[in-house]
Write a structure and sequence with these properties.
two-stranded parallel sheet, alpha+beta, 113 residues
């Protein structure tokens, strides 16, 4: 399994910056190379070259469409607390789940060590 932090923390040099931009775009939504060109603003040649390298490094799946990341380690979690409820969204690999808790069912809990 890949470590997402390692993939996204490399920022020395244009190639790594482009790769990071592409990985972030794919994390948001897998897509074709032409979609990645549109979403990242990078040239078609840059996208094509980077995708080939990432396939060789097993960062993206070896399929033509859509371009998807191989399974990674880690999770992203977002919590929004508002007047009308609490919204929690989490992402693990390619799975996304969202749960909305109505205000009358939400209560703060004290957690002690």
């Amino acid at each position: 399994m890949l470590d997402a932090r390692k993939l996204l923390s490399d920022s020395d040099g244009t190639r790594k910056e482009n790769r990071t931009k592409i990985i972030r775009a794919i994390m948001c939504r897998p897509g074709s190379q032409s979609e990645l060109v549109r979403r990242t603003g990078l040239s078609p040649a840059t996208i094509s070259s980077a995708v080939q390298e990432m396939r060789a490094d097993r960062i993206v799946k070896n399929t033509n469409r859509p371009i998807e990341l191989e399974q990674t380690t880690g999770v992203a979690l977002g919590v929004s607390v508002g007047l009308h409820g609490v919204r929690v969204a989490g992402r693990l690999a390619s799975m996304t789940h969202e749960v909305v808790v109505p205000p009358d069912q939400f209560r703060l809990m004290e957690i002690s060590a």
